[in-house]
Amino acid sequence: MSAAPSLPDPTVACREARPTTLLELVSALSDVSDDDREIVAAVLYMLKAGHVRLCGNFRDAPLSDFE
Question: Would you kindly state where each structural domain of the chain is located, as residue ranges?
Fold first, then answer.
């Protein structure tokens, strides 16, 4: 497992949303971690914090369904 990249400064204005798939997000996370549990935890954290949003079939699904 390699060191996680540093998080962006939250005081910096948010950039425009960039559409991506859940597969692309998981793939990017797997580039920095080999631990599947860590990847799932990171995705859940980003969803709960509002850093990413689901669309399509899972758009309005409660996060408790994924824990």
Answer: 22-66
Buried b (16+ CB within 10 A) or exposed e, 42-61: bbeeeeeeeeeeeeeeeeee
Residue 42 to residue 11: CA distance in whole angstroms:
21
Determine contact, residues 48/16, Cβ cutoff 8 Å: no
Two structure tokens written together for 42: 């990171």
CB 30 within 8 A of CB 1: no
Question: 18 vs 65, which has greater pLDDT?
Answer: 18
pLDDT per residue over 1-42, tens digit each?
556 666 656 555 556 777 788 889 999 999 999 999 999 999
| Overall pTM > 0.85 | no
